[in-house]
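=== Structure Prediction Worksheet ===
Name of assembly: unnamed complex
Input type: mixed (protein and possibly other molecules)
Chain count: two
Listed entries:
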Amino acid sequence: MAMRIVAETARLMGAERLIAIESAHIDGALYHGDSGTFFAERLVAGGAKTSVRATLNVGAIDLTGCSRNRLPPHELEMARRMMTAYQQLGCESTWTCAPYQAGHRPRLGSQVAWGESNAVVFCNSVLGARTNRYGDFLDIACAIAGRAPDYGLHRSENRRATVVFDVSGVDQKFLRSDLAWPVLGNLYGRLIGDAVGVITGLTFRPWEDILKAFGAAAASSGSVGLFHVAGATPEAPDERTVLRDAPAVERIVVTNDMVRDAQGRLSTAARADRIDAVAIGSPHLSLEEFDNLRRLLSGRHVTVPIYACTGRHVLRILERDGHRQELERLGVIIVADTCIVVTPILPAKPGAILMTNSGKFAHYAPSNTGYSVLYGSMGDCVESAVWGKPIFKVASW
Amino acid sequence: MVTVAAEVLLAGPAASATALALTAPISFWGGVDPKTGLVADPRHPEHGQLVTGKILLVPETVGSSSAAAILLELVHGNRAPAAIVLHEPDAILLLGLIVAKEMGYVTPIALRLDRNRYAALHGREIRVSKSGLLTADLE
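=== Predicted Assembly ===
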């Protein structure tokens, strides 16, 4: 069945052959309804096993017990069965949307089959491994078959940048702030759709967590699978090389006004005078981001809860160092294995407002949680949680 | 009467239903509620409209790679569109139909048609043949 699914997709997408893959990241173990559980159990019943390394994206249940969800009994049972089925297929219980920070980093130029839009874009852009945007079912089918259809971003000719996204006109101080990158990502995704672009005009080398935030926001607002940053990402030593000496099809010159507008779009509750919760960690927080959170809190209790989403790879170290206990004492709710937009963890509360520093949470929270969103930097999110109302200290627009 | 020929991406039964042309890209995950078949994203122009039983015209898909799971769940729960028309084949979304077939569910036909033709079809009663012909009766 797995090979039939891979082959049928190849036909549909016009791929002439299948290629061998080295690893997979599986987004399919998140419960969206009983049908997905039945599919996974059908594979298990047929004796299927993954033939390459396969890490798991988030599930619907926090199996570590750090946080609780409000799934009704039937959904809870079906979600648990689904997570078990994927483990039985041979997938690793990583349960994170940031597998690239959990030790799964395919090498430059390797062929892989990854799901989860932010992981796909990071894998292609920052690691330089080659994957299409794998959806549920095809990811596990490829992991079992060890093969993937050869089209799209697996092929060198489709990895060339055709659009230049020039940020040289944007305030460079703003660009060095963590506030900027989900905003730029949201703008980039909306303007560029599924094209491959190269960001030019940065006067510094972007660090991993801001590229992660940019990619996640870009992959939420557009169909972005690969971006380049001239002078920073592995396939873009400079603009000319990544354009492969061809003229750009389009040159987007980003202005401060465009950025201001994009930042406004991330909030649906821009005039909020109170907040009900803060959520951070989409993609899952890295250890460095937790260090930053602890620094910003500096021992203060929060008035509204901060939901901090992460994976077991980080949780283990937080627990070892006593930081989990410390954060929980201050009112932080650590969410592992899952996150607040994929399963009902936030209390049901009509008219509630969620503050977040994540472009992806800002994009999905209104439809998936019913909360309106207010976008702010990590620093502002923490201050606002401490005071229980929106506080903007970081100079924004 | 107007007839438009679309390319069949995935075979399915003939259908006859109202056309709903989305006017903005959609992410099925977060954008369509699998329990109700309603467009759920409050920022989408067609927010609140029902995709179930419609000839759904999709100009562009964006966002999460879980779209296939939502479409499979719509099919499994008898809340799928009667036919899905895409501007270009999208492996992420159509996987939902490929898997639905493997699971033995009755799946809607999927077609490819240039999005410039969607506006003329929107809101009309459309007949879709198994060979991909879309026929609209002009009133």
